Amino acid sequence: MEYVAKVGNLVEASKRFATLENIVDADVGNGTVKKQRSPSPDLHRVRQGLDLVRALFEQFLSSKIWDFRSSPFKIEVYTF
């Protein structure tokens, strides 16, 4: 549910800004980069989540044995 809210906030921000760079620039200019419910932290968190999912699938595809129990622990080292 956390990501649904963050993506929703980014959708709202996309109505005001043309690019992701514009969103970040506006937050930097307003001094709200670290403020909760600001688009920049939401963008960062969603990107981390997508990077984690990508790394998880890359590991699954490159492995002959798919072990769902141990993979997230190995991937966390690569994404964070």
UniProtKB/TrEMBL annotation:
Cellular component annotations (GO), alphabetically ordered: cytoplasm
Pfam families (alphabetical): GLTP
Gene3D superfamilies xref list: Glycolipid transfer protein
Gene Ontology molecular function terms on file: lipid transfer activity
Top-level lineage group: Eukaryota
Domain called Glycolipid transfer protein: residue spans: 4-64
InterPro entries in UniProt: GLTP_sf, Glycolipid_transfer_prot_dom
Protein name stated in the entry: Glycolipid transfer protein domain-containing protein
Upper classification of the organism: Eukaryota, Viridiplantae, Streptophyta, Embryophyta, Tracheophyta
